Amino acid sequence: MRPANEALIVIDVQNDFCPGGALAVAGGDTIIAPINALIPDYQVRVLTQDWHPAGHSSFASSHPGKAPFSLTDMPYGPQVLWPDHCLQGSDGAAFHPGLRSDRADLVIRKGFRPGIDSYSAFFENDHKTPTGLEGYLRTRGVDTVVLVGLATDFCVNFSAVDAATLGFRTRVIESLCAAIDLDGSLDAAREGMRKAGVTLDA
After folding, report:
1. Which of these is catalytic: 18, 86, 110, 162?
2. Is 153 assigned a catalytic role?
3. Percent of the chain with pLDDT over 70
4. Nearest to 102 by CA among 36, 21, 7
5. Residue of 16, 50, 117, 155 marked catalytic
6. Whose CA is closest to 12, among 186, 199, 177, 202?
7. Is 110 a catalytic site residue?
8. Which of 31, 39, 158, 177 is exposed most, by the fewest CB atoms within 10 A?
9. How far apart are alpha carbons 78 and 185 in whole angstroms?
10. Rounded to whole angstroms, how far apart are CA atoms 5 and 199?
11. What pTM was computed for the model?
12. For this structure, is 86 an active site residue?
């Protein structure tokens, strides 16, 4: 059993990010069994869940003439436009049925504000609006976080960088993550995480 000051954060292991989903990450379902094996080792366990309303501003379908995976400018900066995914209450937004989601102490839902996307478990994409996770971890006495899940180069990356910036000792287990790798985004994410002080473990 890991000490009580360490939290496991499982990022977005949802049907839409697994094979067959609306925004599938290759190999997204292969990490589930080893994540399940890890969950009982931690006394603090947090799951995050993408939770978008219909017509979310990060969907390409909300921007006529824009294609999925293209970029647009939002008031908070550049935003990748995604296929519609993880719609609130849909099967696609549900945790993968193989994930032991019943073991979570806390589920953080993100991306529910229509006008702003949210990759990080800690902040919306404006890097200012908090999800409440930091406060929860502090009150649980956590100073170290371990991140696994989907996708390495987006939601895991943003969560890890924010955790390190907030002063948490932060580790990402790459073998328990899978990446989209959009135009070199995986290498850029790895570099950014290292610069922020995140430890990357195989």
Report:
1. 110
2. no
3. 100
4. 36
5. 155
6. 177
7. yes
8. 39
9. 14
10. 17
11. 0.97
12. no
